[in-house]
Design goal:
alpha+beta; single chain; globular; three-stranded antiparallel β-sheet; 1 helix
Length: 126
């Protein structure tokens, strides 16, 4: 199930300003994309591969998407929206990993860092 919605994303520049971004998280394509608007023809500003990331809560209304090379910082408008968005993104990441790993019969769990561990092979996936 695709996840869409408005977030604030902290910039990667020296200023570290927060900008409003429309996100589209798609477990089928395995991507977390962000745009300047929700218009269908909006320019893609960035894309994060779900197989290489984890999500973690950083405060009541903020979450981080952590990749091997960078951490992305996001904030949302209120606690209710945060809980909904966080759960949906977490589910999308897990769904993408399950599909990629073909782990229908494998027992899996999320460890405290948010990465996926296949308990049958004891392999950790980011």
């Amino acid at each position: 199930m695709e996840v869409t919605g408005w977030v604030l994303k902290q910039g990667n520049s020296l200023r570290k300003d927060w900008k409003k971004r429309w996100i589209v998280v798609n477990p089928v394509t395995g991507t977390f994309n962000y745009y300047p608007s929700e218009k269908p023809d909006a320019q893609l500003l960035g894309s994060i591969k779900l197989l290489s990331c984890t999500i973690k809560k950083s405060s009541k209304k903020k979450f981080d998407i952590v990749t091997p090379t960078r951490t992305y910082y996001f904030s949302v408008k209120d606690q209710y929206y945060f809980n909904d968005m966080y759960q949906k993104i977490s589910d999308a990441i897990l769904s993408t990993m399950e599909t990629a790993l073909g782990t229908n019969d494998a027992i899996q769990e999320m460890n405290t860092c948010g990465s996926l561990i296949d308990l049958e092979t004891n392999t950790e996936y980011w």
